[in-house]
Amino acid sequence: MSDSKFKIIAGLGNPGKNYARTRHNIGFLIVEALASKSCLKIDKTRFDSEYVKARIKGKDVFLVKPLTYMNKSGFPIHKFASYYKVGMEDIIIVHDDMDFSFGKIKIVKSRGHGGHNGVRSIIDAFGKKDCIRVRVGVGHPGSGRDVTGHVLGSFSPDEIKILDHCIDAASDACLCILENSVTSAMNLFNTKR
């Protein structure tokens, strides 16, 4: 991470009650967990986002939930970053990922969007891909199955059993990036089975 005064941790999701407990919104659930670990609520609104400013691991961090739909997430995050002069390498994006089994976490930096529309929107808005991403596995429905229905679907009973653990681990990954470095967080989290 560079020397921006602030960091941004943005969780991706879709606004509204219909989407609240769906796989696609796991990013929202994780930034909410980070807020509650700091005894805060994400309850302020600015730049088409809900946010709260927190002091985490000695850093000033904005926890952000873009309120545009997933495929337009880049614009609010870009507005936030521009206004507070946050370099893209000081932004952590937390999002669902169908490439991994449910609950698996993988941290990546400066990578392409891999077909994720929210991430594609961020890369388009910034014109580069230097952010850090915490990819949280939500599993894949299998070939020929309804991918949209899967990500917009509710968690299965088996997923609910490990959901809290998954949210906790992903929020720990964000804390580890803030406290140590993206490399040490990768070494720790990307090797976990």
List the helices and strands and how they pair.
Layout: E1 6-11, H1 26-37, E2 44-46, E3 49-56, E4 59-66, H2 74-83, E5 91-97, E6 105-109, H3 117-126, E7 132-137, H4 147-151, H5 157-179, H6 182-189
Parallel strand pairs: 1-4, 1-5, 5-7
Antiparallel strand pairs: 2-3, 3-4, 6-7
Quickly describe the structure.
This protein is an alpha/beta fold. The chain has helices at residues 26-37, 74-83, 117-126, 147-151, 157-179, 182-189; strands spanning 6-11, 44-46, 49-56, 59-66, 91-97, 105-109, 132-137.
Features:
Rossmann fold, 193 residues, alpha/beta, seven-stranded mixed sheet, globular
Question: Would you give an account of this structure?
Answer:
- The protein has a seven-stranded mixed sheet, with helices on both faces.
- The chain has one domain (about 5-190): Peptidyl-tRNA hydrolase (Rossmann fold).
- The chain is an alpha/beta fold.
- Helix content is about 35%, strand content about 20%.
- Helix 1 (about 25-35) crosses helix 5.
The strand order across the widest sheet is: 2-3-4-1-5-7-6
Residue share in helix: 25-40%
CATH topology category name: Rossmann fold
CATH homologous superfamily designation: Peptidyl-tRNA hydrolase
Secondary structure class reads: alpha/beta
CATH architecture: 3-Layer(aba) Sandwich
Mean pLDDT over the full residue set: 94
Q: In terms of quaternary structure, what is this?
A: single chain
Give the overall shape: globular
Rg over alpha carbons: 15 Å
End-to-end separation in angstroms reads 26 Å
Q: What is the element string, with H for helices and E for strands?
A: EHEEEHEEHEHHH
The first-level CATH class name: Alpha Beta
User: Number of domains in the coordinates?
Assistant: 1
Helix run count = 6
Approximately what portion of the residues adopt beta-strand conformation? 15-25%
Number of strands: 7
Main sheet characteristics: 7 strands, mixed
Low-confidence stretches: none
